[in-house]
Amino acid sequence: MDFLKMKILIVDDARVARQIVKNMLEESGFTDIIEAENGDKALELLSKEKVDCVLSDWNMPKMNGLELLRKIRATPGMTALPFIMVTAERMEENIVQAVQEGVSGYIKKPFGGKELQTKIRQALRQE
What is the DSSP letter of 29? Predict the structure, then answer.
């Protein structure tokens, strides 16, 4: 698959944050980007569409990024879906927990488009 043609799902409760990440991806050449404002919407989209990589915020109401990751990892056919946690978390134990739960990678805010593209490439290599 052409790296830039992959479908990416951005999950974040903040519309502005989703738009910033989407703009970074588009500036990097990605064209197939979908968005969800929470974990429930993300799961709904994932049940209907084939997604190649999920970029999810950690801190969201109702279902945080870690809970979303757990649900995805428990879903047949999605156990190895590349999942990158986007976080402002600086707590080492939270990052360790995410890795133990099966996160493909994480990126700390603030970040740039080049760093994001590198994280996506790394996550895809883990498939």
Answer: T
Token couple for 49 = 């569409």
Interval 20-39: pLDDT, tens:
999 999 999 999 999 999 99
User: Residue 70's domain is classified under what CATH number?
Assistant: 3.40.50.2300
CB-based contacts of 17, cutoff 8 Å, min separation 6: 57
pLDDT at 80 over 60: yes
Name the residue range of residue 47's domain: 3-125
The answer to whether residues 116 and 17 touch, using CB atoms and an 8 Å cutoff, is no
Structure confidence at residue 85 (pLDDT): 93
CA 20 to chain centre: 14
